């Protein structure tokens, strides 16, 4: 039997609302990417009262709010130099918008964020700053605005991330695997779906979308583009 050339691991967002985290591995291209990296906001709020915050990444993993990096084939998924200073509620980490030299190299080739809702991006606060974060231009702006307006904590630190922004029409090439973002309508601006041209054929990740909003024509353009594709990962508002 011929070995399959791609593998999908659903680590969140299955039979639940939110927490979307999907690992896509292309074994032929030797590519590993996450599609969204959210957390279950409801579960997070059940664990932490207002003005309470997690004290470590290990704590978040133990509570199943973040994937266990030891159980997936990703090296150095999380930031190494993340120390929470409880006196002033600030994490010790570079506040500059550049790759953090204190983190080790990772074999994860990137994380694609579909839109700026917390259940799709909130886990980025804990990510190794050497890992590329692919987002739309507007998504990055909204995440950074949230970071500036919310209280400093270990769960609200999106500085120093290795941002790689895109717009509709861009083609992102990762070791031969091409990813094409398509705008869709959603309840927040800057939402995208993705067509991923793997070695085994196209894989579609819709992110969240809706067909009844003021920009529903964008969603219809995307749906028309993907109607001939067979492998579709979807979770949207209809």
UniProtKB/TrEMBL annotation:
InterPro entries: Metallo-B-lactamas, RibonucZ/Hydroxyglut_hydro. SMART domains: Lactamase_B. Gene3D superfamilies: Ribonuclease Z/Hydroxyacylglutathione hydrolase-like. Residues 18-237 form the Metallo-beta-lactamase domain. SUPFAM superfamilies: Metallo-hydrolase/oxidoreductase. This is Metallo-beta-lactamase domain-containing protein. It comes from marine sediment metagenome.
């Amino acid at each position: 039997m011929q070995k399959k050339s791609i593998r999908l691991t659903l680590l969140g967002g299955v039979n639940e609302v939110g927490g979307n985290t999907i690992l896509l591995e292309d074994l032929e291209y030797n590519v590993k990417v996450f599609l969204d990296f959210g957390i279950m906001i409801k579960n997070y709020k059940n664990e932490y009262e207002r003005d309470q915050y997690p004290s470590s990444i290990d704590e978040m993993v133990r509570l199943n709010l973040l994937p266990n990096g030891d159980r997936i084939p990703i090296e150095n998924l999380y930031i190494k130099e993340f120390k929470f200073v409880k006196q002033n509620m600030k994490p010790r980490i570079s506040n500059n918008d550049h790759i953090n030299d204190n983190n080790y190299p990772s074999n994860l080739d990137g994380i694609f964020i579909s839109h700026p809702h917390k259940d799709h991006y909130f886990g980025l606060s804990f990510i190794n700053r050497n890992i590329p974060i692919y987002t739309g231009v507007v998504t990055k702006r909204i995440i950074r605005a949230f970071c500036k307006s919310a209280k400093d904590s270990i769960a609200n630190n999106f500085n120093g991330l290795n941002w790689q922004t895109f717009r509709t029409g861009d083609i992102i090439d990762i070791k031969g695997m091409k990813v094409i973002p398509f705008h869709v309508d959603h309840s927040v601006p800057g939402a995208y779906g993705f067509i991923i041209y793997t070695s085994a054929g196209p894989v579609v990740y819709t992110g969240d979308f809706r067909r009844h909003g003021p920009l529903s024509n964008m969603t219809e353009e995307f749906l028309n583009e993907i109607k001939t594709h067979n492998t579709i990962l979807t979770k949207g508002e209809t």
